[in-house]
Amino acid sequence: MIFDILSLFPGMFASPLSESILGKAVDRGLITLRIQNIRDFALDRHQMTDDRPFGGGEGMVMKPEPIVRALEAMGREPTPHVVLLSPQGRLFHQGTARRWSGLPRLVLICGRYEGVDERVARHFVNEEISIGDYVLTGGELAAMVIVDAVTRLIPGVLGNESSAVAESFEELILEHPQYTRPQEFRGFRVPEILLSGHHAAIRKWRRGHALLRTRQRRPDLFARLELTVEDRDCLGGAEEEVAAEGRHADAGGDI
Ligand code: SAM
């Protein structure tokens, strides 16, 4: 899969996209990352990429010509899916990442300043996407988030294909709690059932705690679930365990 990123700050991408799993995906030819500097496509001799907003107001707006010229220079082969990063876009989620992981090519346009001339969004992109309800200083970090989330779903990128399937959001529920060695850390023990070797009981425990955690932390997701009889049984087990421990299964810690 090819990722084309249009940015005024290409240097921001060097380290995050060359380390760990993403770096390996590049080395193994599973993804190609191409970063274009929007400024290289500016028309005037001062290489201006922004200007004052028509109608007045604070800040600067990114001009349309350099962005559209960059898009045109990159060509249409393979067919690109062009995305403008914007806090006003539709929310990016795991389903979006799954959908895009099957594309041959994704183009991500990073805005800066007060954003991008509206004509780019209206006439030159396939969709506008936000990574969350907060405002970043630029689209670069959003682009990195998207490249990461999409890349790890491309077949062959993760060592163990099943690990992407069992995770949070793949099934609209949060993942169950995870523990590793030591069995006891500063007086806090790993739940006994996880040490029991009873696979069916462990599966039930994990399902129950995943459902309970989702209900507590993400009631919006929980409301969309259709629980089976078995799910209700698992959830009940988790509720009893938490009640017996006298703790709340909310998102907060002990301190
Ligand atoms: N004035 C704009 C508004 O109120 O919608 C915000 C512009 S923001 C400071 C500059 C750029 O950062 C945007 O053009 C966009 O590319 C990027 N950006 C900021 N927040 C984002 C978010 N939540 N998701 C995706 N991109 C974002």
In the CATH hierarchy, what is the class of the largest domain?
Alpha Beta
Helix content: 25-40%
Structural category: alpha/beta
Return Rg in Å: 23 Å
How far apart the termini lie comes to: 44 Å
Which compounds are bound in this model? S-adenosylmethionine
Ordered list of secondary-structure elements with their pairings:
Layout: E1 2-7, H1 20-27, E2 32-37, E3 50-51, E4 61-62, H2 64-74, E5 81-91, H3 94-100, E6 105-109, H4 118-123, E7 127-130, H5 140-151, E8 184-185, E9 188-189, H6 199-217, H7 219-222, H8 229-245
Parallel strand pairs: 1-2, 1-6, 5-6, 5-7
Antiparallel strand pairs: 3-4, 8-9
Helix pairs in contact: 3-5, 6-8
Q: What characteristics describe this protein?
A:
alpha/beta; binds S-adenosylmethionine; single chain; Alpha/beta knot; 2 domains; 8 helices; Trp Operon Repressor, Chain A; 255 residues; two-stranded antiparallel ribbon
Give an account of the 3D structure.
There is one protein chain. The protein has 255 residues and is an alpha/beta fold. The protein has two domains: 2-158, 3-Layer(aba) Sandwich (Alpha/beta knot), CATH 3.40.1280.10; 166-250, Trp Operon Repressor, Chain A (Orthogonal Bundle). The protein is 33% helix and 16% strand. The protein contains eight helices and nine strands. The strands form three sheets. The protein has a five-stranded parallel β-sheet, with helices on both faces. A two-stranded antiparallel ribbon has the order 3-4. The protein has a two-stranded antiparallel sheet with strand order 8-9. Helix 3 crosses helix 5 (140-151) and helix 6 packs across helix 8. The longest helix has 19 residues, at 199-217. It is elongated. The relative contact order is 0.12. The mean pLDDT is 94.
